[in-house]
From TrEMBL, chain A:
Pfam families, A to Z: ABC_tran, TOBE
GO biological processes: molybdate ion transport
Organism: Microlunatus flavus
Domain Mop: 284-350
Keywords: ATP-binding, Molybdenum, Nucleotide-binding, Transport
Protein name: Molybdate transport system ATP-binding protein
SMART domains cross-referenced by the UniProt entry: AAA (SM00382)
Keyword Transcription regulation: no
Residue span(s) of domain ABC transporter: 7-232
Upper classification of the organism: Bacteria, Bacillati, Actinomycetota, Actinomycetes, Propionibacteriales
GO MF annotation: an example: ATP hydrolysis activity
UniProtKB/TrEMBL annotation, chain B:
Domain of life: Bacteria
Family statement drawn from the similarity comment of this UniProt entry: Belongs to the bacterial solute-binding protein ModA family.
Keywords from the named record: Cell membrane, Membrane, Metal-binding, Molybdenum, Signal, Transport, Tungsten
Identification of the protein by name: Molybdate-binding protein ModA
Gene Ontology terms: cellular component: plasma membrane
Localization per record: Cell membrane
General function of this protein: Involved in the transport of molybdenum into the cell. Part of the binding-protein-dependent transport system ModABCD.
A Gene Ontology biological process term: molybdate ion transport
Automatic annotation (TrEMBL), chain C:
Spans traversing the lipid bilayer: 12-34, 54-78, 90-112, 124-151, 180-201, 236-256
Keyword Glycoprotein: no
Subunit relationships: The complex is composed of two ATP-binding proteins (CysA), two transmembrane proteins (CysT and CysW) and a solute-binding protein (CysP).
GO cellular component: plasma membrane
Family (UniProt): Belongs to the binding-protein-dependent transport system permease family. CysTW subfamily.
The organism's place on the tree of life at top rank: Bacteria
Function statement: Part of the binding-protein-dependent transport system for molybdenum; probably responsible for the translocation of the substrate across the membrane. Part of the ABC transporter complex CysAWTP (TC 3.A.1.6.1) involved in sulfate/thiosulfate import. Probably responsible for the translocation of the substrate across the membrane.
Compartments, as annotated in UniProt: Cell membrane; Membrane
Protein's UniProt keywords contain Membrane: yes
Protein name in UniProt: Molybdenum transport system permease
Organism: Microlunatus flavus
Length: 351, 262, 262
């Protein structure tokens, strides 16, 4: 079920086109308001674009110019939202059997299919319960079963794990990973792990346009947009290649190996926060880039602290330091600091 | 915050007082007591059917008694008696029947004895185009003629019932209304082919209905009594109003409206 | 039971209590006037039983009619957008603020013999005026907005997300309505129906104006109470209490079903 998609919606400044291969899992990333919900709405049939066309497995899914705009229930496009949205008045089994029943399958066969789907999400024992009696993770697993019970040609996932407690997410993520095998799907997410584990390819949307696209691992290793870099947890500086580093548009220079890249060509320099050292007094010697900056924000992150700074040239650079270091260095927002970045820890690639 | 929390309940109770004051200001409450020097108010409780005639007479009375204002409360006679029994202050009571006046007499609400001042009889009211071609009381029993009456519980209905019994006829009304106005409404809108109402009601409705007098109506003559009330603080003035109603001038106004002599 | 902090200022309890008393006290006062020795006999007289039976039957019929017409109306108002929708909503809700008598007059000019549709209905052999159908129409006219408002609110509160999911599962609009939307808004549907039923039960003005008043045909309980009040106050009071009891019973039943009062 390969998908090709293009649509424009003037009112929302939306103009997006992409393709998804048969059985390929696509992740859609982007800041709030980038057009991710619009994209899902157009595919599901709840948001009608001004122009646009989509083909699923060679058949038109919709074609606005040809006045072909099937209602959501005629598309066989499944939707899994952030909230499970299980019908509260139906049992778990009846919820999962809802799709097959709507397709005209008899009750016994529909319930049999529902049990199979529940088993696939490790929720068979919940069949007789009411949605109100389920935990968040259980409810979302049932919702997954319900979404795949109709065997949709395309499965849309709208931040399916965002509403779950961190302790519950792993099981649901694992279940989802199994279910998505071989299934053409479009996943909207803000989560690095979801993108890594539940997608083969990503597109990054910003302000209604595709700004970056590529295989998931590649995009997250070598991000080209600030959003992808932030999601990947990397510092990203865009600039031009020089003999011994990268110079940004603001004039900031970061030392790095630029072997093989023509001088003056547009490149990205990416480096992890953990390779950025923070000093109060300027450090001396060593082949390091030293930047002067001001602390903007301190944020605990796992067992360390992320220090977001703004360099004097106006770039944002994040450093990871230990909690103890925050105390020793007396870091606080507004504090002037020096940042050191080892040249060998900076990856440079063309953009 | 401390001072404000004391203001709020004060505001609430003020609002409540205002409400009570507003509710207390019913027309009856301030009725019969003469107000400021030189002016006085006479409150008259009169049957609804007397609205036109008594309003005219009120103007006459005010002209003859400078500084006097006459206020009326027009309603069903039984409503008015109930109000009087509950202590509504009034100076004069004019009832559309003797039965309700008797209630007032029994409860010693009346000063002196009531005087009958008018009579009223029923008439057939039909829409101007008289679609069912009704010309007589007997026509009302014709099948297919939609007749609307007052319910036997109200005076106009009781009168109709009396006529039915006396003439040994049975009317089959499509509706038994609570008031003459409801009967007239059904006739003027053309829903009903005919209704039985008082002569005065037909006259009052003007061109909207046509009245058809019928001889059988003599079987039920409604008598209107009027009396000054014992609770009045201006008995003299109340007596003068009663005399106006029963005198030559009052009788002429009533006769013009279709009332018969008492 | 643990007492939760309410955050309500203490003085609020004073007007709140006064408000509750304002509603409850008149009912208590009425109950004290009931002639309990004769209560059973008064409410089981043929006229009373006819009125009660008619009220229950017509209120039930009008509630069903409200459901048939009101559910689609609420759906269209809550789920769709069309030019002039606000105007349409305002017009549909008009009977809420309209004096019932005005509603009755409007119905008369629509369904009456000389009304807009009256002639067409007559050709079809349907005569609405003075029939039980007229009572049901009058009740439906005044109670429909209650159902529509209540249901539209619930529909908006529930939102469209469940419906979207159901559609992506392949369910067509009718199936979604039947299997998802209606079950989800059942509490609102129930409370709306109860409101409509209660409003129909109490309907007076429009019925009196439009349908007339005849025992067993158009004289519902409120009309019977109003009529009895003319002659027999004790029956009126007894029937009033009966009406209150029926209304409380219906509301209580619904509260028990949905676990909340409307």
């Amino acid at each position: 079920m390969a998908l090709s998609f293009s649509a424009r919606l003037q009112e929302r400044g939306f103009d997006v086109a992409f393709e998804v291969g048969d059985g390929e899992r696509l992740a859609v990333l982007g800041p709030n308001g980038a057009g991710k919900s619009t994209l899902l709405g157009v595919l599901a049939g709840t948001v009608r674009p001004d122009t646009g066309r989509a083909e699923l497995d060679g058949e038109p899914l919709f074609d606005v110019a040809a006045r072909r705009w099937p209602a959501p229930h005629r598309r066989r496009v499944g939707l899994l939202a952030q909230d499970p949205l299980l019908f509260p008045h139906l049992t778990v089994l009846a919820n999962v059997a809802f799709g097959p029943r709507a397709a005209g399958v008899g009750r016994p066969a529909a319930e049999q299919a529902a049990r199979t789907c529940l088993a696939a999400v490790e929720a068979e024992h919940l069949a007789g319960r009411r949605p109100a009696q389920l935990s968040g993770g259980q409810a979302q697993r049932v919702a997954i079963a319900r979404a795949v019970a109709t065997d949709p040609r395309l499965l849309l996932l709208d931040e399916p794990l965002a509403a779950l407690d961190v302790t519950l997410a792993p099981l649901v993520r694992r279940v989802l990973r199994q279910v998505l095998v071989g299934r053409t799907s479009v996943l909207v997410t803000h989560d690095l792990l979801d993108a890594l584990l539940l997608s083969d390819r990503v597109v990054v949307l910003d302000a209604g346009r595709v700004v970056e696209a590529g295989p998931t691992a590649e995009v997250l290793r070598h991000p080209r947009t600030p959003f992808a870099a932030r999601l990947a947890g990397l510092n990203l500086l865009l600039g031009t290649a020089g003999p011994a580093g990268v110079t940004t548009a603001f004039g900031l220079h970061v030392g790095a190996s630029t072997a093989g890249l023509p001088a003056g060509s547009p490149v990205a320099a990416a480096f992890a926060p953990s390779v950025v050292s923070v000093f109060v007094d300027a450090p001396h010697g060593s082949p390091r880039t030293v930047l002067t900056a001001r602390v903007v924000e301190l944020e605990p992150y796992a067992d360390e602290v992320r220090v977001t700074t703004e360099t004097t040239s106006g770039e944002t650079v994040t450093a990871a330091v230990t909690a103890a270091a925050v105390g020793e260095l007396d870091l606080y927002p507004g504090r002037a600091v020096h940042l050191a970045v080892k040249a060998t820890a900076v990856t440079v690639y063309p953009v | 915050m401390r001072p404000r929390s004391r203001v709020a309940p004060a505001l609430a109770s003020t609002a409540l007082l205002a409400l009570v004051a507003a509710c207390g200001a019913t027309p009856g409450a301030s009725g019969p007591t003469s107000s400021s020097a030189g002016t006085q108010t006479l409150t008259v409780f009169a049957a609804a059917s007397l609205k036109q005639t008594f309003t005219t007479l009120g103007t006459t009375f005010e002209a003859a008694h400078p500084g006097t204002t006459v206020t009326f409360s027009f309603a069903g006679s039984s409503d008015l008696v109930t109000q009087l029994q509950q202590g509504a202050p009034a100076d004069v009571f004019a009832s559309a029947d003797t039965k309700n006046m008797q209630k007032a007499v029994d409860d010693q609400l009346v000063a002196g004895s009531p005087v009958d001042f008018a009579t009223n009889t029923l008439e057939i009211a039909v829409p101007p185009d008289n679609p069912a071609g009704v010309t007589s009381f007997a026509d009302l029993t014709r099948p297919g003629v939609k007749v609307v009456l007052c319910a036997p519980q109200v005076p106009c209905g009781a009168a109709a019932q009396t006529i039915e019994k006396a003439t040994n006829t049975t009317l089959e009304p499509v509706s038994e209304e609570n008031a003459v106005t409801d009967v007239l409404g059904k006739v003027t809108s053309g829903e009903a082919d005919a209704g039985l109402v008082y002569v005065t009601d037909v006259k009052g409705a003007g061109d909207q209905v046509k009245g058809i007098p019928f001889a059988e109506s003599k079987q039920a003559v409604n008598t209107y009594p009027v009396a000054a009330l014992s609770g009045s603080r201006q008995g003299e003035l109340a007596g003068q109003f009663v005399r106006l109603v029963t005198g030559t001038e009052g009788q002429k106004v009533l006769a013009d409206a279709g009332f018969g002599p008492a | 039971m643990a007492r939760r902090w309410s955050g309500v200022p203490l003085w609020v309890y004073v007007p709140a209590t006064l408000g509750a008393l304002f509603v409850v006290l008149p009912l208590v006062a009425m109950a004290t006037r009931v002639d309990w020795a004769r209560f059973g006999a008064l409410v089981t007289s043929p006229a009373s039983l006819d009125a009660l039976g008619l009220s229950l039957r017509t209120s039930l019929a009008s509630t069903l009619l409200c459901l048939v017409l009101g559910v689609p109306m609420a759906l269209v108002l809550a789920r769709t957008a069309f030019p002039g929708q606000r105007v349409v909503r305002a017009l549909v809700l008009l009977p809420l603020v309209l004096p019932p008598v005005v509603g009755g007059i409007a119905l008369l000019y629509t369904f009456g013999r000389r009304g807009l549709l009256g002639h067409a209905l007559e050709v079809l052999g349907l005569q609405v005026a003075f029939s039980t159908t007229a009572v049901v129409l009058a009740q439906t006219f005044v109670s429909l907005p209650f159902l529509v408002v209540s249901l539209e609110g619930t529909l908006r509160a529930v939102g469209q997300r469940y419906e979207t999911v159901a559609a992506t599962l392949g369910a067509g609009p009718t199936l979604v309505l039947r299997r998802v939307t209606l079950p989800l808004v059942l509490p609102g549907l129930l409370s709306g129906s109860v409101l409509a039923f209660a409003r129909a039960l109490g309907e007076f003005g429009a019925t009196l104006t439009f349908a007339g008043s005849l025992q067993g045909v158009t004289r519902t309980l409120p009309l019977e109470i109003y009529l009895q009040r003319e002659t027999d106050a004790s029956t009126a009071v007894a029937l009033s209490l009966l009406l209150v009891a029926v209304a409380v019973g219906v509301v209580g039943l619904a509260a028990g079903r949905t676990g909340r009062v409307l």
